[in-house]
Amino acid sequence: MQLAGVHCALCQKNVLVDSDATWCARCATVLHCKCLAAAGGTCPVCRAPYDQPERHFVFSQECPECFEPNNPSQPHCTACAASTRWDNQAAFDTFLAHLKETARLYLLRGLAELTFAALCLVALIAMFTEAPRFGFVGAVVVALIFFSADGISCLLYSRQVRKFR
Q1: Helix axes 134-162, 89-127, angle to 10 degrees
Q2: What does the alpha-carbon distance between residue 25 and residue 53 come to, in Å, rounded to a whole number?
Q3: How far apart are CA 60 and CA 53, in angstroms?
Q4: Which of 23, 56, 63, 76 could pair with 88 as two cysteines, CB 3.0-4.6 Å apart?
Q5: Does residue 14 contact residue 5 with C-beta atoms inside 8 Å?
Q6: Residues 6 or more apart in contact with residue 156 via CB below 8 angstroms
Q7: What is the pLDDT of residues 7-66, one digit of tens each?
Q8: What are the beta bridge partners of residue 14?
């Protein structure tokens, strides 16, 4: 959760640095750590004992950007510095749903590009049954190579994203 720039619920002053503040996991109220200690560890909004957000953190098994393993669990990927921590299970589930949709879109894109590559191949074969025009043949060959490579790349990426946990 981004804390810098948010008002503390107790003193109403802006949080300047994330490390100076925390939030109640029950109601997401942002508080300066010093203000929370002065309030006796009770959240001013939900009036319950402060619930540490760290107890609810969820870590992915791998990085969502570079797919490197996240073992032992770290808040950021050691390879690319992408975030591998979510504030709670609901936030992680929302992210997983987003990734599932992303994987579906990459699958559709890959299939569409491979279909177009197949059409380019058919057009190329058809051109050689007649007198070929080499400028047009070159363009079809380039399209065939591009769409084949990108389509396969999209399918592989879709598969990798679908396996993310």
Answers
A1: 160
A2: 5
A3: 17
A4: 56
A5: yes
A6: none
A7: 999 999 999 998 899 999 989 899 999 999 999 999 999 999 999 999 999 999 999 999
A8: 7
| pTM greater than the 0.85 cutoff | no
> What would the two tokens of residue 10 be?
């107790």
Which residue type is seen at 119?
L
Half-sphere exposure of 117 (CA within 13 A, CB side): 16
Going from N- to C-terminal start, the domains of the chain cover 1-56, 57-87, 98-162
The one-character DSSP state at 8 is: P
Judged on CB neighbours under 10 Å (0-12, 13-18, 19+), 2 is exposed
- 86 beta partners: 58
Specify the fold of 1-56: Herpes Virus-1 (3.30.40)
Is 22 exposed, middle or buried (CB count within 10 Å of its CB: 0-12, 13-18, 19+)? buried
